[in-house]
Amino acid sequence: MLEITVLETPTPITVEYSLPLKSGKIINVSARRLMRWERETSEFFMQKVDKSGGHKNVLECATYFAEVISEGLLWDKEDHIQQLAELIKLGFILEFDEAAIGFLMKTKNLQIFLEDEEFLSSAFPSC
Prior knowledge:
Elements: E1 5-9, E2 13-20, E3 26-33, E4 35-38, E5 43-47, H1 55-73, H2 78-93, H3 98-107, H4 114-123
Parallel strand pairs: 1-5
Antiparallel strand pairs: 2-3, 4-5
Helix pairs in contact: 1-2
């Protein structure tokens, strides 16, 4: 995730899916998304966030961001995706404030291990 490229677009991202049925018929569906992570190409696409829309827009953005990140990181561990998404969503809403995140982790009985601290320090030396 450290090598990911983030690309921002002013317009919604359209995702298209095709489902071929046994009958030979193909169902095509398109959906608009605020964000999309292409793990194979390490690209994260996101629509420009409009925070002037109040709490609803912030919550919507936090929710989609958390889901995309969780699904991208834990694609092979589906039973943990929702739990990570909830933590990321709360972190996003709290603007990833270190003291608030520390309290949040404490209330969830979570901790950062020494090897995690070392990794974060080496990956983000200015933090």
